[in-house]
Write a structure and sequence with these properties.
alpha+beta; Alpha-Beta Plaits; 4-stranded antiparallel β-sheet; 4 strands; 34% helix; globular
């Protein structure tokens, strides 16, 4: 799953998103979170809405790409 994230501006933001995603059931691995293009690549079978909600609760906007 590729997620487009807006609002990340530094490595602290990346770490916050990573922490939020690790807490989502079904996320097996976070392949990468890229600050330069605002994307996260997630492996596993998490609920899409749960992923978006976790990112929003961390303070960022997200849509599945």
């Amino acid at each position: 799953m590729i997620v487009k994230i807006t609002g990340m501006s530094c490595n602290h933001c990346v770490n916050s998103v990573e922490k939020a995603l690790r807490a989502v059931p079904g996320v097996q691995q976070i392949k990468e979170i890229r600050l330069d293009n605002g994307t996260a690549v997630i492996e596993g079978s998490p609920d899409t809405q749960a992923v978006i909600t976790a990112i929003r609760e961390a303070g960022y906007s997200a849509v599945v790409a």
